[in-house]
Specification:
α1 crosses α2 (44-52). The longest helix has 18 residues, at 11-28. It contains 3 helices and 9 strands. By secondary structure, the chain is of the alpha/beta class. Bound molecules: guanosine-5'-monophosphate (5GP) and magnesium ion.
Amino acid sequence: MQLREPPLITYNSIQKRVQELAFQISSEISSDNLQVIIVLKGAMFFASDLLKSLPPVSSVDFFKVCSYRGNSSSGEIEVQYLPTDNISGKKVLLIEDILDTGKTTSFILNWLCTQGPQMIRLCVLLKKIKSQTVTHINADYVGFEVEDRFVVGYGMDFNNMYRNLKDIYVLEFD
Ligand code: 5GP
Ligand code: MG
């Protein structure tokens, strides 16, 4: 198992894209009354950079799920933390690391919808280009579209490793 060099996406290009996304989001959604929900742990670096470039939002909360075992989706979603801020009638911005099969995101969106928000917008750092669509989830804001390979770094892990890498790499398996 090794990191493929050079990085797939460098920290500098992530920062540039984050600025563009922040500009786009803040020109489309007013941040007062906006509740941000970050999907842990993978989206933590991305969300923290993005939030620093947004005007003040009304709350930041978390959703923690586990669906991956190693480098493949287990298909079963285990909820480890649910947001506690009341989102009923509120505008929500959900921040995710990767849209892969879309199963995790669709599970989270369904749960959030049961809480009666006024609207939900989805922002993902990476969207994998799949040969077949598994679930039809439309992200409102996408950082980068990437090849369908397993990636790590900038918050994203393999069995909890590589999360703290600055750049995003493809992880190659022998
Ligand atoms: P999905 O349910 O869309 O198939 O998978 C979504 C979640 O699986 C992502 O939010 C992410 O946590 C994890 N995941 C999917 N692809 C990758 C990947 O290439 N690398 C890492 N580190 N996690 C991934
Ligand atoms: Mg995730």
